[in-house]
């Protein structure tokens, strides 16, 4: 059983996959019985949030450092430009509700959104660390609830009922 928790913990730390992939794996019968819901969510949230401080404080610095390097420079420059452009667009659209926008960005489980991307955007926008972490963790919790409901077939059942 401990191996299952370690596995979903590690899955939830992977960029792009994050908690959105770990929750369905933990709820599946991949290894026999599914994991209990509450401990699964706690492990997935912890795994998803573990990289957040490192991303917030160091990712931008690493990208700036690597922007002038021969092999990685073009990619790192691309990431910096995209991050800055995306941050400016988000700031223009969200205005004073920037933290709410960050919460929704992380919380709606779509490809390319999540704790990694949201934290990187918060870093590019020089947002307050504590407020950003609160918005990101709330978004991760929302994404976990949505993925849990989707894994349980709630959305499919509701679509069948209302169509």
Tell me the quaternary state.
Answer: single chain
For the largest beta-sheet, the strand count, sense and barrel status come to: none
Binned strand content = under 5%
Outline type: globular
Summarize the model shown.
The chain is built from nine helices and no strands.
Keyphrases for this structure?
2 domains; 163 residues; mainly alpha; single chain
List the helices and strands and how they pair.
Blueprint: H1 2-13, H2 18-27, H3 37-49, H4 52-66, H5 73-94, H6 98-107, H7 115-124, H8 129-151, H9 154-162
Task: Report on the architecture of this protein.
By secondary structure, the protein is mainly α. It folds into two domains: 2-47; 52-148, no CATH class. Helix content is 76%, strand content 0%. It is globular and about 50 Å long. The model has no long low-confidence stretch (mean pLDDT 86).
